[in-house]
Specification:
alpha/beta; TIM Barrel; globular
Length: 207
Amino acid sequence: MKGIYAITPCNEEINTLLEKVKRLLDSGVLFFQYRDKNLHKHEISENAYRLLELIKKYDAKLIINDSPMVAMEIGADGFHLGLEDYQEKKMQNFLNEHCEVLNEDYIKGISCKWNMELIETPPEEIINWDYIAVGAFYNSATKIDATTNKTIEKNLPLKVSLKPIVAVGGINHKNFEEVLSYGYQILAISEGIFSEDSSNKIVNYFK
């Protein structure tokens, strides 16, 4: 993993979102996460399937936020969970039931925020994580409850983790080079990449 990890913004009408994803695919972005906290599961599944059809034409990857169930249902490439979602009993039961196929066939990520203990030793009793996400690096409209850590040495996660690390949280065309200067090679970006006015600088950097 390296470069841009594009996270879809919430509350986008699906046809508009497909147009934006296609623009990014045409620009060379190959790793996407479908994330929408405001839809029912069947709507997420339907939208994700349409996104997957488009993304597969470019031999790119689609990760489903919060739902390994949807990822398995539509044949997506993987899923991403927050710690709280991972710890829910219903989720634990599902992961235990399908752990063999999930560990073998899917890309799996977990959010660790700035929890150094979690970054160093993420919970792997069930799932062997392929990457961890750390942040927020900056104030984020996508995760309004996420907190930036002004005191932590921002490159410390790279020193303590054996996993690939995705930097997340408020990253845009104005600050992405600062995040790269810390040593991060994978940047998760939402509004900062889906806004056409601000995405060109980021996309062109990674070409």
